Amino acid sequence: MVTSYEAVLLFLAGALGGAINAVAGGGSFVTFPALLFARVGPLAANATSTIALWVGMSASGGAYRSKLKFSRRVMAPLVATSIAGGMIGAFLLIKTPPQTFLRVLPWLMLAATLLFAFGKYLTGQISKGIERHASNRSIVSASIFEFFVAIYGGYFGGGVGLMNLAMLASLGMTDIHAMNALKTVLGSTTNGVAAFLFVASGLIAWRQGLVMTLGALAGGYATAHFAQKLSQVWIRRFVIMAGIATTIYFFVKAYRV
């Protein structure tokens, strides 16, 4: 039974999580604690959060469709590795406890934030990247990176959008809106595969999840349209700040005494 207070909390958390994912990634850091507060167990909360944010991310993808101008040569291997990695990550969540992985997570988030912030300086590429002039080496590197990001995304998923943005920045992409479009496709693929396995395993808290999904749907779609009207500089700064906040959160969570 979901109380009226919990329903309001879950809807607002879903809307905020969907909005954060549409711009930067890290929406599960809002939705996951909200589900725990609504008396959902940790594994079920993780799985239910994945379902809700997958719907919200798919909705935001519709707003970014005009920016999704990538060749099949680029998209096919990235989507394939997202599917494979998402399946592996979801199986790991179902079969193993998350405590050990959570101790590694803050280091991964720190690396992703730094990579996003300084990726274009590390590569020395200003306007090129995987958007139009992708080399075979760049595509292979991106696919390998995406495979491991998708494993993490299927397992827990917190900040997976930020990791994808970091990967795209390191490969030379500079258009934040195009990056968000591709990030949304890859994240939706990973979460979709994981969501299917979570449903099959019976981990979903459906009553709480439905309320949260409605919020994520509204927040993801509305924010994606609004985000495209903002300065790329401000969105990039928001992404970096989200990464810093996420990293601090997980360091405190993993290493508190």
Overview of the molecule:
The longest helix is centred in the last third of the chain and has 26 residues, at 176-201. The protein has helices at 4-23, 28-37, 42-63, 72-95, 99-123, 136-155, 160-170, 176-201, 206-227, 232-255. The chain has 257 residues and is mainly α. The model is unreliable at 123-129 (pLDDT under 50). The termini are far apart. It has one domain. The chain is globular.
What is the overall number of helices?
10
Helix content: over 70%
Could you list the spans in which at least 5 consecutive residues all have pLDDT below 50? 123-129
The SS-based structural class is mainly alpha
| Overall 3D form | globular
Share of residues in strands: under 5%
Quickly list its features.
0% strand; 10 helices; mainly alpha
Topology summary:
Layout: H1 4-23, H2 28-37, H3 42-63, H4 72-95, H5 99-123, H6 136-155, H7 160-170, H8 176-201, H9 206-227, H10 232-255
Helix pairs in contact: 1-2, 1-3, 1-9, 2-3, 3-8, 3-9, 4-6, 4-8, 5-7, 5-10, 6-7, 6-8, 7-8
In brief:
This protein has 257 residues and is mainly α.
